[in-house]
Design brief:
The chain is of the alpha/beta class. It is about 35% helix and about 25% strand. α1 runs parallel beside α3, α1 crosses α9 and α4 packs across α6. About 40% of the residues are buried. The protein binds cytidine-5'-triphosphate (CTP). The site of cytidine-5'-triphosphate has 14 residues, from α12 and β16.
């Protein structure tokens, strides 16, 4: 799923100090062209004014079950029926208890009771309230019913305690919600993805690396996770936050990447090597910083193992995808690697371009298999990731 444009989202706001952050969540849905309705409980109104949500969502806010002016013709049954997703953020212990036990004493709880849409709750409360057996039982009831629980996060709480009970950040909630809005066409599929550069140390302060930012691999991991997959991302050093819901393994050298990939490979269905693995490492690593005594410094480099070549030899029925980073003869060189490394697919990108390949937010890729060659236009790396996943899906379904 590349976009949530046109999806019907209901955000329910209940009475917690984190309610102000829900404005940012609402903005994220609006910016991504979702159709948003906001419903607030009476308690929520003590923390934030309905007018703020109205300004962001561009439509009237649902406040009361008997509100005659709330979107004429849109009663709570209709609202519940039309929703692609209902998110309660923040979700207080009180509202969690009510929906766990089927109460319908306000507009929000009535919508939840009348709805068959996916529901996501983002708990926010004092840490002792979160740890209370009553809340634990209520959360378990909701989880069993298929409600998705996002958070709470650990940290400083409004009541000056700290512990588990903070509402997750709006960006995290938004990202987590995308999976609930997708078709989940990769559910029950385990991905192993590598990303980023490797760093090969020379001495304690110096290393050799390459220009990979890791963005393409991270967007692949993100897209696969949104589409329902279980994803492990083995990443070299990058400046990127780990994608929501993805298992992260951080490594530094090609050897560490090789060890991590080998460990996880047996458990995966699809492996995508998007990492720019360093081909060479320094033969010797000086224990102390190398001093600038010599006018010419010679360092000998020895070859790193080719991880993907090794995987190709033991791939069995796994689907193996490589990337080809080229500066010349793109298709010819990539095709050679496809066969040499025994891959199902190779994604070729020209890393000499300024709008594609390394360190950009966009990419222009060729998806090559034994029988097919698809050239995708220049697009965001997130869209390119979906394009690659679409091709993998089509080929696996053949
Ligand atoms: N790769 C790997 N281990 C290495 C080098 C590369 O697993 N030591 C993987 C990359 O992750 C990528 C594919 O092999 O999926 C091709 O990498 P690329 O750098 O394009 O080519 P190389 O095989 O390294 O060959 P060359 O550098 O000569 O182009």
């Amino acid at each position: 799923m590349e976009t949530i444009a046109g999806k019907n989202i209901i955000i329910g706001v209940t009475g917690g100090i984190a309610a102000y952050k829900t404005l940012i969540l609402a903005r994220l849905f609006i910016n991504n062209e979702a159709i948003l309705k906001v419903v607030m409980t009476k308690a929520a109104e003590s923390f934030i004014g309905p007018l703020s949500f109205q300004a962001i969502s561009g439509s009237k806010i649902g406040l009361d079950i008997l509100d005659p002016v709330f979107d004429s013709g849109m009663d709570h049954i209709e609202l519940a029926r039309d929703a692609d997703l209902i998110i309660i953020a923040p979700a207080t212990a009180n509202t969690i208890a009510k929906i766990a036990h089927g109460f319908s004493d306000n507009l929000l709880t009535s919508i939840i009771l009348a709805s068959t849409s996916p529901v996501m709750i983002c708990p926010a409360m004092n840490n002792n309230m979160w740890a209370n057996q009553a809340t634990i039982d209520n959360i378990n009831i909701l989880k069993k019913r298929g409600v998705h629980v996002c958070g709470p996060a650990y940290g400083e709480l409004a009541c000056s305690d700290s512990g588990a009970g903070r509402m997750e950040e709006p960006e995290f909630i938004f990202e987590d919600s995308l999976r609930l809005l997708s078709e989940n066409d990769f559910s029950d599929t385990r991905f192993l993805i590598s990303a980023g550069p490797t760093q090969e140390p020379i001495d304690p302060v110096r290393y050799i690396t390459n220009r990979s930012s890791g963005k393409m691999g991270y967007e692949l991991a993100r897209a696969a996770r949104i589409r329902g997959a279980e994803v492990t991302l083995v990443s070299g050093p990058t400046n990127l936050p780990g994608p929501v819901g993805v298992e992260m393994i951080n490594i530094r050298t090609a050897k560490e990447m090789s060890d991590a990939i080998k460990k996880k490979f047996t458990d995966c269905d699809i492996c995508i090597m998007a990492a720019a693995v360093g081909d060479y490492r320094s033969q010797k690593q000086s224990e102390q910083k190398i001093k600038k005594d010599m006018d010419v410094l010679n360092i000998n480099f020895e070859k790193n193992p080719d991880i993907l070549l090794g995987l190709g030899k033991q791939k069995g029925d796994k689907f193996l995808v490589g990337f080809a980073a080229e500066t010349q003869d793109l298709i010819k060189n990539a095709t050679k690697k496809l066969f040499k490394k025994n891959l199902n697919m190779i994604v070729a990108n020209d890393v000499s371009r300024t709008d594609a390949g390394f360190q950009t937010n966009t990419n222009q890729v060729h998806i090559l298999t034994e029988k097919t060659a698809i050239k995708l236009p220049l697009m965001s790396k997130f869209r390119a990731a979906h394009g690659i996943l679409n091709s993998i899906k089509a080929m696996r379904n053949e």
